Amino acid sequence: MYTELADEQLVELAVRDDPEAFGEIVRRWERKIFALCFGMLGREDEARDAAQEAFISAYRNISRFRGDAKVSSWLHRIAVNQCLTVKRRQKSRSEEYLGDEDEAESRVFVASPAVSPKNIAEKGERLKLVRQAVGALPSELREVIVMKEFEEMTFQEIADTLELPLSTVKSRLYTALKQLKLRLERISVEVV
Amino acid sequence: MTHNEAKNQECGHTGQILDFVYDELPVSVKGAFESHLATCEACSGEVSSLVSTSMAVKEWRAEAFEPLAKLRFSIPTERRPKIGAFAIILSIFRQPIYAAAAATLLLGSAIGLYFLLGSSSSQPQVARSVDMPAVPAAVTPTVSVVEQVTAPEAHPMIAKDDRPAEKTAQTRSERPQGARQARMVRKSSGSGQNRAVATNASLQKAVPEDLFGEVPETRDRSLRLTDLFTEGDED
What we know:
- By secondary structure, chain A is an all-alpha fold.
- Chain A is 74% helix and 0% strand.
- Chain B is an all-alpha fold.
- Chain B has eleven helices and no strands.
């Protein structure tokens, strides 16, 4: 029954105290929201927690949802804010979220037996560099590149979600890719 | 600004590069842009640079994120408790300022009611309060004083009522009857002046009973003290 309803209808039902309707919203958007959190935070456990918190926050404040924005935009905004809150907490604790590299690598990479140890090492090193470079981007650039690359949102969807002009979104993405390339080159030179 | 970016700005296709990289260029424009790429080294270099960076991020996503993406979030979806009107009112009065305002209002209205009701029934209250036996009748020798105040000669308005002749022997327990009679006199009197006299008479009859009742005893004591002093002086 719920699968046929639009997001806005599900929100209306959830506001009228129907938890199953909100469950359907979670099922629809959990993967994208998790992708966004993963791209923003770079770590699985933090991304999982942030996504969970974002959904809980959305459920608690569902009565405040105004119909002038799309449900997906509303959820994305909550998730982005949640990720920024996590980052702020990390900063205040003076912890480097890119630390604990060995643990992260063992958790993230699933090696195929067909791949040679040399290739695994090279690939692992490359992905680590990308993760570091994305993590070092300013948050306004990072959220745009994560929405584009992880969630595969269109420019217009990003603009709607972040409530920014289309040109600003494109400009930010362009800058993000440029900075990322520079950082990747710099880091790879430092590593070599 | 790199050499490629400068050249892109010159050729005027900068705005289309990003759309092309992410496959968001309209089909009508896409063909023209692809043919431009074949001739423009700056644009093709820029596209290549952006695509390689984008591919790096996509690879990271595929390797790091995809294996983790099979997740299910469990949101606590228990029904929220319904808030009743009483609970809302209570929550308002939990704030000190509202609680103080409510308490002041209640107190004010209580005081107002007290004075309102008190003023309308002040006369009977006085009579009733006086009727209460504060001091045992046997101890206080008030009888003769009351008799003097309420004597028929002093107040002719109530002289001819049906008070019994043996009023001098009246005890405090019988006084309510006297108060009732005073009220009856008040009701029966026609003019305002008469009513005032009757009110005064009833008050004089009712109120001073206790006040005058103390007088003889005090006089007796003072006399006794004087006697003692005089005795001392004599000594």
